[in-house]
Amino acid sequence: MDGVLIVDKPAGLTSHDVVNRVRRILHKRSVGHLGTLDPMATGVLPLVVGRMTRLAQFYTASEKSYEGAIHFGFATDTYDAEGEPAGPTQKVKVSLEGLRELSGRFKGRIRQTPPPFSAKKIQGVPAYKLARKHREVDLKPVEVEIKEFELTDWDGERAAFRARVASGTYMRSVAHEMGQSLGCGAHLASLRRTAVAEFGLADAHTLEALEEAARQGRAEELFIHARKLLPELPSVTANEENLARIRVGRAVNLPELSRASQVKVFQGQSELIAIATRVAGTLFHAKIVLAAGTHAPSTGNR
Length: 302
Known about the structure:
18% of the residues lie in helices and 32% in strands. It is α+β, with helices and mostly antiparallel strands.
């Protein structure tokens, strides 16, 4: 069982909790996720199963989209609703127009300090482990990119928003820093991820739906069709001669794709068997092999 499965993560579970549950449902040890979601957050959590875990390297810098709400009036130690208040509640005196003007400072490439309760490492130790022990967490600002950030509603305490960001951006930090700018404090009240790379909520399934499909022996029907994966890479359907060469780890000639640096190689319409890298001219070597029974190297870019 190999494929990519999109789970609609429920609140209260860590991303690793979801991975463990899917391992039990599918009776498959080789399961990983493509981008952590905080326990409080819900939404799109892509999982790679079996040999498709080898595709994870292509999604390390994936763009992500969110919907959520920021609560103004007090900050928390985690920068979200699960944390402890970092001070007394304060009055909020700002209009939606004022918030939208402030939000402009958080668009584009900005410097952002990650939350103390995060997976960012300090001398090899995740920051959240230090924060839980009430030890000093000294995280340095990093450059992130917020491509879209729109405040859509405001009730005097909570501002609803939509955002599209580059990998590594923390919406918790955006909420916290907006509160600091206004002098009233703020934290992320809710967050739902609506997209990761080419995957959206329309592709997502609940854990309950996956369990039911597995009981009926049709779990693989919920996997993303392989032709939809990595749409930025061109595809080629290999003939028998090239399939044979790939199976023994030999390079193949693909003259119709001479300008591509990497291509998806299919057997038939739905079986993704390899990601091939151009080594010279129109010669490609399948260095990431996803099909069973092949002998070419499975990972790496030698």
